[in-house]
Amino acid sequence: MYNSFVSHFKTMGDVDVLWHDGVYHLFHLVLPNHDFIAHATSKDGLNWKRIENALFIGDPGNWDDYMLWTMHVSPDPHERGWWRMFYTGLSLDDQGSLQRIGIARSRDLIHWEKFKDSSNKSSAGVPCDANYVPLCSKLPYYEQKPAADHAWVSFRDPYYFQHEGQGYLAMAARVPFGPSIRRGCVGLARETSPHCFELVEPLHHPGQYDDIEVPNLLKFDGRYYLIGSIREDAKIRYWYSNSLDGPWSNYYDNVLLAAGNYAGRVSWDDRGPLLWNFYTPDAEVRNRKNLMPPPKRIVQLDDGRLAVRSIEAFDDIVESTFTHRELNPIAALYSKFDSQVAFDDGSESYEVNCNGGFQGFLFSPIFKGFRLKTRLRLSGLGKCGLLFRVDPESSDGYHLSLDLIKGVAQLRAWGHRNEPDSEQAFQYQRLQAAYWRNTDKLEFDITLLCLNTYIEFAIDDNVLLSLSDETFSEGHLGVYVESATVVLENPTVEILHTPEHPTDDLPMGSKDAAPIPRPNDPTSGQ
Q1: Per-residue model confidence as pLDDT tens digits over 254-263
Q2: Is the peptide bond before 140 cis (omega within 30 degrees of 0)?
Q3: ∠23-291-4 over CA atoms, to 5°?
Protein backbone atom coordinates (compact mmCIF):
# COMPACT_ATOMS: atom_id res chain seq x y z
CA MET A 1 0.00 0.00 0.00
CA TYR A 2 1.20 3.46 -0.81
CA ASN A 3 1.33 5.61 2.30
CA SER A 4 3.65 8.51 1.74
CA PHE A 5 1.81 10.54 4.38
CA VAL A 6 0.33 8.57 7.27
CA SER A 7 -0.18 10.67 10.37
CA HIS A 8 -2.67 12.82 12.21
CA PHE A 9 -1.13 15.88 10.56
CA LYS A 10 -0.85 14.98 6.88
CA THR A 11 -2.21 12.20 4.68
CA MET A 12 -3.02 11.40 1.08
CA GLY A 13 -6.31 12.14 -0.64
CA ASP A 14 -7.84 11.55 -4.08
CA VAL A 15 -5.64 9.75 -6.60
CA ASP A 16 -5.17 9.60 -10.36
CA VAL A 17 -2.89 7.09 -12.08
CA LEU A 18 -1.56 7.04 -15.63
CA TRP A 19 0.46 4.19 -17.17
CA HIS A 20 3.11 5.17 -19.71
CA ASP A 21 6.22 3.38 -21.03
CA GLY A 22 5.77 0.58 -18.47
CA VAL A 23 5.60 2.95 -15.49
CA TYR A 24 2.59 3.87 -13.37
CA HIS A 25 2.45 7.57 -12.52
CA LEU A 26 0.47 8.35 -9.39
CA PHE A 27 -0.78 11.87 -8.76
CA HIS A 28 -2.54 12.48 -5.47
CA LEU A 29 -3.81 15.16 -3.13
CA VAL A 30 -2.24 15.89 0.24
CA LEU A 31 -4.67 16.49 3.10
CA PRO A 32 -5.70 18.53 5.00
CA ASN A 33 -3.89 21.50 3.42
CA HIS A 34 -4.50 20.66 -0.26
CA ASP A 35 -1.55 22.89 -1.13
CA PHE A 36 0.15 20.66 -3.72
CA ILE A 37 -0.35 17.61 -5.93
CA ALA A 38 2.18 14.90 -5.17
CA HIS A 39 3.70 12.51 -7.73
CA ALA A 40 5.02 8.97 -7.30
CA THR A 41 6.04 6.25 -9.75
CA SER A 42 5.95 2.47 -9.79
CA LYS A 43 6.77 -0.43 -12.10
CA ASP A 44 4.25 -2.87 -10.65
CA GLY A 45 1.58 -0.88 -8.79
CA LEU A 46 2.86 -2.21 -5.45
CA ASN A 47 6.23 -0.52 -4.89
CA TRP A 48 6.27 3.26 -5.16
CA LYS A 49 8.83 6.05 -5.15
CA ARG A 50 8.04 9.73 -4.49
CA ILE A 51 9.45 12.12 -7.07
CA GLU A 52 9.00 15.82 -7.74
CA ASN A 53 5.65 17.30 -6.76
CA ALA A 54 3.57 18.02 -9.84
CA LEU A 55 1.63 21.18 -9.02
CA PHE A 56 1.31 23.78 -6.27
CA ILE A 57 -1.40 26.27 -5.33
CA GLY A 58 -1.24 29.57 -7.21
CA ASP A 59 0.31 32.79 -6.04
CA PRO A 60 -1.94 35.15 -4.03
CA GLY A 61 -4.65 36.57 -6.23
CA ASN A 62 -4.80 33.63 -8.63
CA TRP A 63 -8.00 31.61 -8.95
CA ASP A 64 -6.28 28.56 -7.38
CA ASP A 65 -4.42 30.29 -4.53
CA TYR A 66 -6.34 28.51 -1.73
CA MET A 67 -6.47 24.76 -2.43
CA LEU A 68 -5.95 22.14 -5.12
CA TRP A 69 -8.43 19.31 -5.39
CA THR A 70 -8.83 16.24 -7.60
CA MET A 71 -7.02 16.00 -10.92
CA HIS A 72 -6.98 13.84 -14.07
CA VAL A 73 -4.03 13.30 -16.42
CA SER A 74 -4.45 12.17 -20.04
CA PRO A 75 -2.72 12.58 -23.43
CA ASP A 76 -3.26 15.97 -25.05
CA PRO A 77 -5.27 15.09 -28.17
CA HIS A 78 -4.23 18.32 -29.89
CA GLU A 79 -0.46 18.01 -29.70
CA ARG A 80 1.33 14.67 -29.90
CA GLY A 81 3.76 13.95 -27.09
CA TRP A 82 2.11 16.36 -24.63
CA TRP A 83 -0.04 15.64 -21.58
CA ARG A 84 -2.83 17.58 -19.94
CA MET A 85 -3.74 17.67 -16.28
CA PHE A 86 -7.23 18.90 -15.49
CA TYR A 87 -7.36 19.92 -11.84
CA THR A 88 -9.73 21.53 -9.35
CA GLY A 89 -8.79 24.86 -7.80
CA LEU A 90 -10.22 27.02 -5.02
CA SER A 91 -9.70 30.73 -4.39
CA LEU A 92 -9.11 32.69 -1.20
CA ASP A 93 -11.16 35.52 -2.65
CA ASP A 94 -14.40 33.55 -2.24
CA GLN A 95 -13.21 31.42 0.73
CA GLY A 96 -13.32 28.28 -1.40
CA SER A 97 -17.06 28.48 -2.05
CA LEU A 98 -16.67 28.25 -5.85
CA GLN A 99 -14.85 25.29 -7.34
CA ARG A 100 -13.23 25.76 -10.73
CA ILE A 101 -11.39 23.49 -13.17
CA GLY A 102 -8.07 24.44 -14.75
CA ILE A 103 -5.46 22.87 -17.02
CA ALA A 104 -1.73 22.25 -16.74
CA ARG A 105 0.45 20.75 -19.50
CA SER A 106 3.64 18.69 -19.58
CA ARG A 107 5.92 16.95 -22.08
CA ASP A 108 7.46 14.50 -19.63
CA LEU A 109 4.78 13.99 -16.92
CA ILE A 110 7.26 15.48 -14.44
CA HIS A 111 7.35 19.22 -15.09
CA TRP A 112 3.99 20.94 -15.37
CA GLU A 113 2.98 24.44 -16.42
CA LYS A 114 -0.45 25.85 -15.67
CA PHE A 115 -2.65 27.62 -18.18
CA LYS A 116 -3.26 31.15 -17.02
CA ASP A 117 -6.82 32.35 -16.44
CA SER A 118 -9.06 34.08 -18.95
CA SER A 119 -7.47 37.46 -18.27
CA ASN A 120 -4.25 36.07 -19.75
CA LYS A 121 -5.57 34.23 -22.79
CA SER A 122 -2.40 34.72 -24.74
CA SER A 123 -0.49 32.38 -22.42
CA ALA A 124 -1.75 29.35 -24.37
CA GLY A 125 -1.43 30.97 -27.76
CA VAL A 126 -4.98 29.87 -28.58
CA PRO A 127 -7.85 32.32 -29.13
CA CYS A 128 -10.72 31.44 -26.83
CA ASP A 129 -14.07 32.72 -25.65
CA ALA A 130 -15.75 32.81 -22.24
CA ASN A 131 -15.36 29.04 -21.99
CA TYR A 132 -11.63 29.36 -21.48
CA VAL A 133 -10.20 27.90 -18.27
CA PRO A 134 -10.78 28.05 -15.42
CA LEU A 135 -14.11 26.44 -16.20
CA CYS A 136 -16.89 27.39 -13.80
CA SER A 137 -20.29 26.03 -12.84
CA LYS A 138 -23.03 28.05 -14.55
CA LEU A 139 -26.74 28.11 -15.24
CA PRO A 140 -28.88 26.79 -16.83
CA TYR A 141 -27.54 23.28 -16.29
CA TYR A 142 -25.68 23.65 -12.97
CA GLU A 143 -25.73 25.62 -9.74
CA GLN A 144 -24.10 29.02 -10.05
CA LYS A 145 -24.12 29.87 -6.35
CA PRO A 146 -24.23 27.68 -3.22
CA ALA A 147 -27.62 26.33 -2.16
CA ALA A 148 -28.94 27.79 1.10
CA ASP A 149 -27.71 24.79 3.12
CA HIS A 150 -24.43 24.22 1.26
CA ALA A 151 -21.04 25.83 1.81
CA TRP A 152 -19.92 25.64 -1.82
CA VAL A 153 -20.82 25.11 -5.45
CA SER A 154 -19.76 21.59 -6.47
CA PHE A 155 -17.72 21.64 -9.68
CA ARG A 156 -14.69 19.43 -9.26
CA ASP A 157 -13.00 16.06 -9.94
CA PRO A 158 -12.56 16.47 -13.72
CA TYR A 159 -12.32 13.43 -15.99
CA TYR A 160 -11.47 13.87 -19.67
CA PHE A 161 -12.61 11.36 -22.30
CA GLN A 162 -13.29 11.17 -26.01
CA HIS A 163 -16.38 9.82 -27.74
CA GLU A 164 -16.71 9.48 -31.51
CA GLY A 165 -13.86 11.94 -32.03
CA GLN A 166 -15.31 14.57 -29.68
CA GLY A 167 -13.61 15.54 -26.43
CA TYR A 168 -15.61 15.82 -23.21
CA LEU A 169 -14.90 16.73 -19.62
CA ALA A 170 -16.98 15.09 -16.89
CA MET A 171 -17.01 16.45 -13.35
CA ALA A 172 -18.79 16.22 -9.98
CA ALA A 173 -21.48 18.89 -10.22
CA ARG A 174 -25.01 19.75 -9.01
CA VAL A 175 -28.17 20.56 -10.91
CA PRO A 176 -29.91 23.84 -9.87
CA PHE A 177 -33.27 22.30 -8.95
CA GLY A 178 -34.84 19.83 -6.54
CA PRO A 179 -34.06 18.98 -2.88
CA SER A 180 -30.57 20.27 -2.18
CA ILE A 181 -29.21 16.94 -0.94
CA ARG A 182 -30.45 15.19 -4.12
CA ARG A 183 -28.85 17.49 -6.69
CA GLY A 184 -25.58 15.63 -7.20
CA CYS A 185 -24.87 14.76 -10.83
CA VAL A 186 -22.08 13.94 -13.25
CA GLY A 187 -21.70 17.21 -15.11
CA LEU A 188 -20.46 17.42 -18.68
CA ALA A 189 -18.64 19.94 -20.88
CA ARG A 190 -17.85 19.59 -24.58
CA GLU A 191 -14.47 20.68 -25.97
CA THR A 192 -15.38 23.18 -28.70
CA SER A 193 -11.78 24.04 -29.66
CA PRO A 194 -8.41 23.11 -28.16
CA HIS A 195 -8.61 23.62 -24.37
CA CYS A 196 -11.97 25.45 -24.57
CA PHE A 197 -15.13 23.86 -23.15
CA GLU A 198 -18.86 24.53 -23.31
CA LEU A 199 -21.16 23.25 -20.56
CA VAL A 200 -23.91 20.88 -21.71
CA GLU A 201 -26.60 18.86 -19.95
CA PRO A 202 -25.45 16.49 -17.18
CA LEU A 203 -24.27 13.05 -18.20
CA HIS A 204 -26.27 11.53 -15.33
CA HIS A 205 -28.42 12.89 -12.50
CA PRO A 206 -29.76 9.97 -10.41
CA GLY A 207 -31.74 12.28 -8.11
CA GLN A 208 -30.49 10.44 -5.05
CA TYR A 209 -27.16 11.79 -3.81
CA ASP A 210 -25.68 15.05 -2.57
CA ASP A 211 -22.67 14.60 -4.87
CA ILE A 212 -21.25 11.99 -7.23
CA GLU A 213 -17.54 12.40 -6.64
CA VAL A 214 -14.62 11.48 -8.90
CA PRO A 215 -16.60 10.32 -11.96
CA ASN A 216 -15.07 7.91 -14.51
CA LEU A 217 -16.22 6.39 -17.78
CA LEU A 218 -15.28 3.09 -19.39
CA LYS A 219 -16.66 0.84 -22.09
CA PHE A 220 -16.99 -2.94 -22.41
CA ASP A 221 -18.41 -4.58 -25.54
CA GLY A 222 -20.50 -1.59 -26.56
CA ARG A 223 -21.83 -0.89 -23.07
CA TYR A 224 -20.83 2.23 -21.15
CA TYR A 225 -20.14 2.24 -17.42
CA LEU A 226 -20.11 5.34 -15.23
CA ILE A 227 -18.24 5.00 -11.93
CA GLY A 228 -18.51 7.45 -9.03
CA SER A 229 -17.98 7.68 -5.28
CA ILE A 230 -20.80 8.49 -2.87
CA ARG A 231 -20.15 10.38 0.37
CA GLU A 232 -23.33 9.18 2.06
CA ASP A 233 -22.04 5.62 2.51
CA ALA A 234 -18.38 6.04 1.46
CA LYS A 235 -18.64 3.45 -1.31
CA ILE A 236 -17.66 3.31 -4.97
CA ARG A 237 -20.71 2.70 -7.19
CA TYR A 238 -21.45 2.45 -10.91
CA TRP A 239 -24.22 2.76 -13.52
CA TYR A 240 -24.48 1.41 -17.07
CA SER A 241 -26.02 2.43 -20.39
CA ASN A 242 -26.00 1.27 -24.00
CA SER A 243 -25.56 4.88 -25.10
CA LEU A 244 -23.60 7.82 -23.79
CA ASP A 245 -26.87 9.75 -23.88
CA GLY A 246 -28.41 7.32 -21.36
CA PRO A 247 -30.58 6.40 -19.68
CA TRP A 248 -28.16 5.23 -16.99
CA SER A 249 -29.36 2.20 -15.04
CA ASN A 250 -27.98 0.37 -12.03
CA TYR A 251 -28.02 -3.28 -10.98
CA TYR A 252 -29.44 -4.62 -7.73
CA ASP A 253 -25.91 -4.33 -6.35
CA ASN A 254 -23.88 -1.59 -7.99
CA VAL A 255 -21.12 -1.35 -5.35
CA LEU A 256 -17.64 -1.96 -6.78
CA LEU A 257 -15.73 -1.68 -3.49
CA ALA A 258 -16.94 -1.83 0.10
CA ALA A 259 -17.12 1.10 2.51
CA GLY A 260 -13.83 2.79 3.38
CA ASN A 261 -12.61 2.62 -0.23
CA TYR A 262 -13.21 6.00 -1.82
CA ALA A 263 -12.50 8.33 -4.73
CA GLY A 264 -12.11 5.47 -7.19
CA ARG A 265 -10.22 6.39 -10.34
CA VAL A 266 -9.98 4.27 -13.50
CA SER A 267 -6.80 3.98 -15.56
CA TRP A 268 -5.55 1.63 -18.26
CA ASP A 269 -2.37 -0.37 -18.67
CA ASP A 270 -1.45 -3.00 -21.27
CA ARG A 271 -3.83 -5.53 -19.67
CA GLY A 272 -6.93 -3.36 -19.43
CA PRO A 273 -8.69 -1.10 -16.92
CA LEU A 274 -7.64 -0.77 -13.29
CA LEU A 275 -9.48 0.77 -10.34
CA TRP A 276 -7.40 2.84 -7.92
CA ASN A 277 -8.60 4.57 -4.77
CA PHE A 278 -7.59 5.65 -1.31
CA TYR A 279 -8.69 3.78 1.78
CA THR A 280 -9.68 5.57 4.96
CA PRO A 281 -10.17 3.73 8.26
CA ASP A 282 -12.62 6.42 9.41
CA ALA A 283 -15.19 7.46 6.81
CA GLU A 284 -16.30 10.35 9.02
CA VAL A 285 -12.85 11.93 9.08
CA ARG A 286 -10.97 11.54 5.81
CA ASN A 287 -7.95 13.65 6.63
CA ARG A 288 -5.74 11.24 8.55
CA LYS A 289 -4.04 7.89 8.01
CA ASN A 290 -5.31 7.34 4.48
CA LEU A 291 -3.58 4.79 2.26
CA MET A 292 -3.79 3.69 -1.34
CA PRO A 293 -4.49 -0.05 -1.63
CA PRO A 294 -3.14 -2.06 -4.56
CA PRO A 295 -5.29 -1.48 -7.64
CA LYS A 296 -8.00 -3.89 -8.75
CA ARG A 297 -8.50 -5.19 -12.27
CA ILE A 298 -11.98 -4.29 -13.58
CA VAL A 299 -13.79 -7.05 -15.48
CA GLN A 300 -17.21 -7.46 -17.04
CA LEU A 301 -19.18 -10.51 -15.92
CA ASP A 302 -21.35 -12.61 -18.22
CA ASP A 303 -24.53 -10.84 -17.07
CA GLY A 304 -23.07 -7.39 -17.75
CA ARG A 305 -22.21 -6.48 -14.15
CA LEU A 306 -18.76 -5.21 -13.24
CA ALA A 307 -16.44 -6.87 -10.76
CA VAL A 308 -12.91 -6.19 -9.51
CA ARG A 309 -10.11 -8.72 -9.21
CA SER A 310 -6.70 -8.88 -7.59
CA ILE A 311 -3.84 -7.33 -9.53
CA GLU A 312 -1.51 -9.74 -11.32
CA ALA A 313 1.59 -8.19 -9.71
CA PHE A 314 1.02 -10.28 -6.57
CA ASP A 315 2.01 -13.37 -8.58
CA ASP A 316 5.48 -11.86 -9.01
CA ILE A 317 6.18 -11.51 -5.28
CA VAL A 318 5.44 -15.12 -4.25
CA GLU A 319 8.56 -16.44 -2.49
CA SER A 320 7.43 -19.96 -1.56
CA THR A 321 4.33 -22.13 -1.24
CA PHE A 322 2.94 -24.34 1.52
CA THR A 323 0.98 -27.20 0.00
CA HIS A 324 -1.90 -28.97 1.73
CA ARG A 325 0.52 -31.51 3.25
CA GLU A 326 2.91 -28.85 4.57
CA LEU A 327 0.08 -27.11 6.43
CA ASN A 328 -0.30 -30.14 8.72
CA PRO A 329 -0.93 -30.70 11.51
CA ILE A 330 -4.19 -28.81 11.91
CA ALA A 331 -5.22 -28.32 15.53
CA ALA A 332 -8.50 -27.44 17.21
CA LEU A 333 -8.61 -24.11 19.01
CA TYR A 334 -10.57 -25.62 21.92
CA SER A 335 -10.57 -29.13 23.36
CA LYS A 336 -14.16 -30.06 22.64
CA PHE A 337 -15.48 -33.57 22.22
CA ASP A 338 -18.09 -32.53 19.63
CA SER A 339 -15.62 -31.36 16.97
CA GLN A 340 -13.50 -33.37 14.53
CA VAL A 341 -10.94 -32.81 11.80
CA ALA A 342 -9.97 -35.26 9.07
CA PHE A 343 -7.25 -34.98 6.42
CA ASP A 344 -7.61 -36.88 3.15
CA ASP A 345 -4.33 -36.96 1.29
CA GLY A 346 -5.93 -38.55 -1.75
CA SER A 347 -8.42 -35.76 -2.32
CA GLU A 348 -6.01 -33.15 -0.89
CA SER A 349 -8.67 -31.89 1.46
CA TYR A 350 -9.46 -31.17 5.10
CA GLU A 351 -12.88 -31.79 6.60
CA VAL A 352 -13.74 -30.07 9.87
CA ASN A 353 -16.98 -30.03 11.81
CA CYS A 354 -18.46 -28.98 15.11
CA ASN A 355 -21.89 -30.20 16.17
CA GLY A 356 -22.51 -27.50 18.75
CA GLY A 357 -20.91 -24.18 19.60
CA PHE A 358 -17.87 -22.56 18.02
CA GLN A 359 -14.68 -24.35 17.05
CA GLY A 360 -11.61 -23.05 15.24
CA PHE A 361 -9.05 -25.15 13.39
CA LEU A 362 -5.58 -23.70 12.84
CA PHE A 363 -2.78 -24.79 10.51
CA SER A 364 0.57 -25.23 12.23
CA PRO A 365 2.75 -22.54 10.54
CA ILE A 366 2.76 -18.89 11.59
CA PHE A 367 2.24 -16.47 8.72
CA LYS A 368 2.78 -12.72 8.19
CA GLY A 369 2.48 -11.91 4.48
CA PHE A 370 0.57 -14.64 2.65
CA ARG A 371 -2.07 -15.56 0.10
CA LEU A 372 -4.40 -18.46 0.88
CA LYS A 373 -6.17 -20.25 -1.97
CA THR A 374 -8.68 -23.03 -1.47
CA ARG A 375 -12.08 -24.32 -2.48
CA LEU A 376 -14.47 -24.15 0.45
CA ARG A 377 -17.58 -26.35 0.68
CA LEU A 378 -20.22 -26.02 3.40
CA SER A 379 -22.57 -28.74 4.64
CA GLY A 380 -25.43 -28.01 7.01
CA LEU A 381 -27.21 -24.81 7.95
CA GLY A 382 -24.67 -23.55 10.48
CA LYS A 383 -21.95 -20.91 10.24
CA CYS A 384 -18.37 -20.83 9.04
CA GLY A 385 -15.53 -18.45 8.36
CA LEU A 386 -11.78 -17.94 8.25
CA LEU A 387 -9.34 -17.18 11.06
CA PHE A 388 -6.00 -15.51 10.42
CA ARG A 389 -3.17 -13.89 12.34
CA VAL A 390 -4.55 -15.73 15.36
CA ASP A 391 -2.78 -16.39 18.67
CA PRO A 392 -4.07 -19.84 19.78
CA GLU A 393 -3.40 -19.11 23.45
CA SER A 394 -5.64 -16.04 23.62
CA SER A 395 -7.67 -16.61 20.41
CA ASP A 396 -6.92 -12.98 19.47
CA GLY A 397 -6.91 -12.38 15.74
CA TYR A 398 -9.01 -11.66 12.68
CA HIS A 399 -12.35 -13.40 12.26
CA LEU A 400 -13.82 -13.41 8.75
CA SER A 401 -17.45 -14.48 8.95
CA LEU A 402 -18.85 -16.07 5.78
CA ASP A 403 -22.60 -16.40 5.48
CA LEU A 404 -22.52 -18.51 2.35
CA ILE A 405 -26.30 -18.87 2.22
CA LYS A 406 -27.14 -15.14 2.28
CA GLY A 407 -23.91 -14.03 0.60
CA VAL A 408 -22.31 -11.90 3.34
CA ALA A 409 -18.64 -11.50 4.29
CA GLN A 410 -17.83 -9.61 7.50
CA LEU A 411 -14.34 -9.01 8.87
CA ARG A 412 -13.72 -8.33 12.56
CA ALA A 413 -10.66 -7.81 14.72
CA TRP A 414 -11.52 -9.78 17.85
CA GLY A 415 -9.43 -10.17 20.96
CA HIS A 416 -9.05 -9.32 24.62
CA ARG A 417 -8.06 -6.17 26.47
CA ASN A 418 -5.41 -5.95 29.16
CA GLU A 419 -7.63 -3.74 31.26
CA PRO A 420 -8.75 -5.61 34.39
CA ASP A 421 -10.87 -2.70 35.60
CA SER A 422 -12.93 -2.52 32.42
CA GLU A 423 -16.34 -4.13 32.09
CA GLN A 424 -15.46 -4.95 28.48
CA ALA A 425 -12.68 -7.50 28.65
CA PHE A 426 -12.78 -7.90 24.89
CA GLN A 427 -12.02 -5.71 21.89
CA TYR A 428 -14.40 -6.14 19.00
CA GLN A 429 -13.92 -4.06 15.86
CA ARG A 430 -16.16 -4.35 12.81
CA LEU A 431 -13.76 -3.59 10.00
CA GLN A 432 -15.62 -4.15 6.74
CA ALA A 433 -18.54 -6.03 5.21
CA ALA A 434 -19.47 -6.95 1.64
CA TYR A 435 -22.24 -8.84 -0.08
CA TRP A 436 -22.73 -11.03 -3.11
CA ARG A 437 -25.64 -12.80 -4.73
CA ASN A 438 -25.93 -16.50 -3.93
CA THR A 439 -27.98 -18.92 -6.02
CA ASP A 440 -28.08 -21.89 -3.61
CA LYS A 441 -24.40 -22.47 -4.22
CA LEU A 442 -22.42 -23.66 -1.18
CA GLU A 443 -19.04 -24.26 -2.82
CA PHE A 444 -16.66 -21.41 -3.60
CA ASP A 445 -13.07 -20.73 -4.61
CA ILE A 446 -11.75 -18.28 -2.04
CA THR A 447 -8.58 -16.20 -1.80
CA LEU A 448 -7.36 -14.38 1.29
CA LEU A 449 -4.36 -12.07 0.94
CA CYS A 450 -2.49 -10.26 3.73
CA LEU A 451 0.52 -8.04 3.09
CA ASN A 452 1.69 -5.69 5.84
CA THR A 453 -1.54 -3.98 6.93
CA TYR A 454 -3.39 -4.71 3.69
CA ILE A 455 -6.16 -7.35 3.69
CA GLU A 456 -7.96 -8.54 0.57
CA PHE A 457 -10.61 -11.26 0.27
CA ALA A 458 -12.10 -12.67 -2.93
CA ILE A 459 -14.74 -15.25 -3.77
CA ASP A 460 -14.53 -16.89 -7.20
CA ASP A 461 -11.79 -14.34 -8.03
CA ASN A 462 -14.05 -11.34 -7.38
CA VAL A 463 -12.66 -9.07 -4.67
CA LEU A 464 -15.18 -8.33 -1.92
CA LEU A 465 -13.07 -6.93 0.91
CA SER A 466 -10.18 -4.50 0.54
CA LEU A 467 -8.90 -2.63 3.58
CA SER A 468 -6.04 -1.79 5.87
CA ASP A 469 -5.80 -2.65 9.57
CA GLU A 470 -2.84 -2.88 11.93
CA THR A 471 -4.43 -4.62 14.92
CA PHE A 472 -2.69 -7.97 14.30
CA SER A 473 0.51 -8.55 12.32
CA GLU A 474 1.12 -12.31 12.37
CA GLY A 475 -0.28 -15.60 13.62
CA HIS A 476 -1.91 -18.84 12.64
CA LEU A 477 -4.30 -19.32 9.75
CA GLY A 478 -7.35 -21.56 9.66
CA VAL A 479 -11.10 -21.99 9.51
CA TYR A 480 -13.96 -22.02 12.02
CA VAL A 481 -17.37 -23.69 12.07
CA GLU A 482 -20.51 -23.48 14.15
CA SER A 483 -22.94 -26.40 13.88
CA ALA A 484 -21.68 -27.21 10.41
CA THR A 485 -19.15 -29.13 8.35
CA VAL A 486 -16.64 -27.43 6.08
CA VAL A 487 -14.35 -29.02 3.52
CA LEU A 488 -11.21 -27.20 2.35
CA GLU A 489 -10.06 -28.67 -0.97
CA ASN A 490 -6.38 -28.37 -1.89
CA PRO A 491 -5.55 -25.45 0.40
CA THR A 492 -2.27 -23.72 -0.47
CA VAL A 493 -0.60 -20.78 1.23
CA GLU A 494 1.85 -18.64 -0.74
CA ILE A 495 4.41 -16.59 1.18
CA LEU A 496 4.60 -13.06 -0.20
CA HIS A 497 7.65 -10.83 -0.29
CA THR A 498 7.12 -7.78 1.89
CA PRO A 499 8.36 -4.57 0.21
CA GLU A 500 10.62 -2.53 2.45
CA HIS A 501 12.29 0.02 0.19
CA PRO A 502 11.02 1.92 -2.86
CA THR A 503 12.37 1.10 -6.28
CA ASP A 504 15.05 3.61 -7.22
CA ASP A 505 15.75 2.81 -10.88
CA LEU A 506 12.47 3.78 -12.48
CA PRO A 507 12.63 5.24 -15.99
CA MET A 508 10.88 8.56 -16.41
CA GLY A 509 10.08 8.11 -20.12
CA SER A 510 11.22 10.01 -23.19
CA LYS A 511 10.09 13.60 -23.58
CA ASP A 512 9.32 12.87 -27.22
CA ALA A 513 7.45 9.63 -26.57
CA ALA A 514 3.97 9.58 -28.05
CA PRO A 515 0.92 8.63 -25.99
CA ILE A 516 0.01 4.97 -26.30
CA PRO A 517 -3.65 4.37 -27.29
CA ARG A 518 -5.24 1.64 -25.19
CA PRO A 519 -8.28 -0.49 -26.05
CA ASN A 520 -11.50 0.57 -24.32
CA ASP A 521 -9.78 3.65 -22.87
CA PRO A 522 -12.11 6.63 -23.44
CA THR A 523 -9.18 9.04 -22.99
CA SER A 524 -7.36 7.53 -25.97
CA GLY A 525 -10.06 8.36 -28.47
CA GLN A 526 -10.14 4.77 -29.68
Answers
A1: 999 999 999 9
A2: yes
A3: 65
Query: CA–CA separation, 241 vs 252, rounded Å?
Result: 15
Distance CA 253, CA 408 (A): 13
Q: What is the pLDDT of residue 424?
A: 72
Enclosing H/E stretch for 247:
none
Rounded CA separation 12/9 (Å):
11
The span from the CA of 490 to the CA of 479, in Å, is: 14
Q: If you ran DSSP here, which 8-state letter would residue 2 be given?
A: B
Phi, psi (degrees; rounded to nearest 5) at 147:
-65, 160
DSSP string, 77-141: TTSTT-EEEEEEEE-TTTTT-B-EEEEEEESSSSS-EEPP-GGGGGGGT----TTBSSEE--TTT
Q: Is the dihedral of CA 463, 465, 469, 474 positive or negative?
A: negative
Give me the DSSP letters along 456-517: EEEETTEEEEEEE--S---EEEEEEEEEEEEEEEEEEEEEEP---S---------TTPPP--
Candidates 84, 113, 194; CA nearest to 515 is: 84
Which residue type does 398 have? Y
Q: Which residues of 438-468 are buried (b: 16+ CB within 10 A; e: fewer)?
A: eeeeeebebbbbbbbbbbbbbbeebbbbbbb
Q: Over the range 342-370, which residues count as b (16 or more CB within 10 Å of their CB) and which as e?
A: ebeeeebbbbbbbbeebbbbbbeeebebb
CA dist., res. 420 & res. 263, Å (int): 42
Please count the CA atoms within 13 angstroms of the CA of 49 that sit on its side-chain side.
Answer: 14
The CA distance from 48 to 38, in Å, is: 12
Q: Which amino acid is residue 410, in one-letter code?
A: Q
Instruction: Using 50 as the pLDDT threshold, list the residues of the chain that sit under it.
Output: 119-130, 502-519, 524-526
Torsion of CA 352, 353, 359, 363, to 10 degrees: 0
SS (H, E, C) 271-335: CEEEEEEEECCCCCCCCCCCEECCCEEEEECCCCCEEEEECHHHHHHEEEEECCCCCCCEEECCC
> Amino acid identity of 92?
L
Q: How far is CA 348 from CA 124, 320, 430, 459, 487, in A?
A: 67, 19, 33, 20, 10
N- to C-terminal Cα separation, the chain: 32
Which helix (H) or strand (E) segment is 159 a member of? Answer: strand 155-163
Distance CA 433, CA 466 (A): 10
Q: Is 385 exposed, middle or buried (0-12, 13-18, 19+ CB in 10 A)?
A: buried
Report CA-CA distances (Å) from 165 to 16, 148, 190, 191, 522: 23, 40, 11, 11, 10
